[in-house]
Amino acid sequence: MAGGKVVRVRVDPEKCQGHNRCKALAPALFELDEYGNSKEIGDGIVPEGQLEAAYLARANCPEMAVEIIEE
Amino acid sequence: MAQDTTRTRPPVTDWTTDWDHLDPQWRDNPFPIWDELRGKCPIAHTQRYLGAYLPTTYAAVKAISYDTTNFSSRRVVVREVRPEPPMPSPPISSDPPHHKPAKQLLLPPFTPDEMKKLEPRARAICNELIDKFIADGRCDAAQMYTRHIPVRVIAHMLDVPESDGDQFIQWIHEILELGITDDDILMKAVHEMSMYFAGYVEARTKKPGDDLISRIIMARQDGKPLPPQEVLGMIRLLLIAGIDTTWSAIGSSLWHLAKVPSDRKRLIAEPQLMPTAIEELLRAYAPVTMAREVVQDTIVEGCPIKKGNMVLLSFPAANRDPAMFPDADKVILDRQENRHSAFGLGIHRCVGSNLARLEMTVAIEEWLKRIPEFRLDPAIPVTWSEGTVRGPRQLPFIFS
Questions:
Q1: B336 has a chain A CB within 8 A of its CB
Q2: Counting beta carbons within 10 angstroms of the beta carbon of residue A16, is it exposed (0 to 12), middle (13 to 18) or buried (19 or more)?
Q3: Contacting residues of A for B339, CB less than 8 Å apart
Q4: Which residues have CB under 8 Å from B11's CB, separation 6+?
Q5: Does A63 touch chain B (CB under 8 A)?
Q6: Quick check: helix, strand or coil at residue B379?
Q7: Rounded to an integer, what distance in angstroms lies between the CA atom of residue B136 and that of residue B166?
Q8: Is A59 an 8 Å CB contact of chain B?
Q9: Inter-chain touch B336–A20, beta carbons under 8 Å
């Protein structure tokens, strides 16, 4: 929860090429598979205090594969 | 190393219609050329190299990187000759659908967790090198420091003698620089590399270890081992792709920190900036330019592109595009939004990007710990490599 809204991150597996930028910037939100491709941890819900990291991860993905969904 | 090849080339007078990446102007300072082209002619053409395009905007470089239908990776270097068939070195020279299985063999040994295991050896290599020249108060950092770091780390990964590094560097010089204009030199170097590694492949097929050569031998594609020629091709690729690229990136970073004392002091005072600083130095001084071959007529960003030409895919130029990066010509160590393309875009993203980042981080950290104050020696020029990979090859520092 952040600001009363649920914010989630999601990695588009079709776009991710394993640059590893999201994992480096927001290690609490992303995990890597055996090939180094990234995936959101669990349901991708961004805890309070991780919002900035989530936006940084999106702002640094060269493939535009990181999405932020506000519900 | 400056090459004889440029001495006999007609100088470029119009970069929009006659560009040449072997021109000394490009070698010494390509940035104004790219800035001019981006404004005047974002996809320039040249009749040199049997016909080739040069995109300089991020949008065009990205569009071409993503379009594997019209732009093939069967040739990844713009050269003056185009031998048929091109020499395959999967996965860098592969197109879909063959690319993915070949790449997936190489990815697991290069994940961030695997790279962390190399960190102690990488730090030790840096300190062994610094020990040799620190008392002199000066050094050519390109020849005495940056040159040796990636080659020794990759030798360590392959479990071959680190002392063979100079031979590896000679082969890469012959393939990536001299090979642009001289196919005989390139073929001889490829042959010598294959001979060198064939012995290791044979020995480790019988008795595998936990090194990278053994891991490639043991890898299975559809349940079957790779043919020996492909094993050798992958080992050659790892060596060619992993040495002068990172040598160049570390060298350009130290060159920047020598030139801009405020950035050097800031990085020492705020070491937590290292991750963003590394990405910014990669953006600003991306060493690697790849290539594609146009296999069908198409249109990119409104520009007609004709089959049979090559494309010089300049990730370094894309990284300086102000439409993508505000203050693109400035190095901002804490740049927050940085989707740089130094490791490529799309399916051919550099397999060794995590290794390169580790080597850059370690090399710069260890240097700054031991030699926090250094400057360029005004009496000796800085020289740059030419061709596919750009970085300093003579880097005279004073630090006494």
A1: yes
A2: buried
A3: 59-62, 64
A4: B23
A5: yes
A6: coil
A7: 23
A8: yes
A9: no
Segment B183-211, tens digit of pLDDT: 999 999 999 999 999 999 999 999 999 99
Report if pTM > 0.90: yes
ipTM of the complex: 0.95
B259-278 residues touching A, CB cutoff 8 A = 275
Tokens matching residue A56: 């940084």
Round to the nearest angstrom and report the end-to-end CA distance of chain B.
26
Assess B107–A contact: CB distance below 8 Å, yes or no.
Answer: yes
Q: What value does the mean pLDDT take over residues B211-227?
A: 92
**Which helix H or strand E contains B370, and what residues bound it?**
helix B353-370
What pLDDT digit, counting tens, does each position of B282-326 carry?
999 999 999 999 999 999 999 999 999 999 999 999 999 999 999
Using the predicted structure, report yes or no on whether residue B5 has a pLDDT greater than 80. no
The amino acid occupying position B363 is A
For residue A1, what pLDDT is reported? Answer: 47
Six token digits for residue B356: 């390169």
Residue entry with tokens 């990669």: B282
Residues 6+ apart with CB under 8 A from A60: A21, A22, A25, B279, B337, B338, B339
From the list A21, A59, A61, which residue is nearest B336 (CB)?
A: A59
Shortest Cα–Cα distance, A42 to chain B (Å): 20
Distance CA A61, CA A21 (A): 6
Q: Is residue A57 a contact partner of residue A2, using CB atoms and an 8 Å limit?
A: no
CB A22 within 8 Å of CB A53: no
Mutation for B interface: A56, A60, A64, A68, most B CBs within 10 A: A60
B20-71 pLDDT per residue, tens? 999 999 999 999 999 999 999 999 999 999 999 999 999 999 999 999 999 9
**How high is the pLDDT of residue B229?**
86
Write out the E strands in B203-276.
220-221, 224-225
Task: Among B339, B348, B350, pick the best mutation site for testing chain A contact (most A Cβ within 10 A).
Answer: B339
User: Does residue B161 come out as left (phi exceeding 0), alpha (psi in the -120 to 50 range) or beta?
Assistant: beta
Q: Do B353 and A17 touch (CB under 8 A)?
A: no
Predicted local distance difference test score (pLDDT) of residue B87: 79
- Residue B225 near residue B105 (C-beta atoms within 8 A): no
Distance from CA of B347 to the nearest CA of A (A): 6
Write a three-state SS string for B277-332. HHHHHHHHCCCECEEEEECCCEEECCEEECCCCEEEECHHHHCCCCCCCCCCCCCC
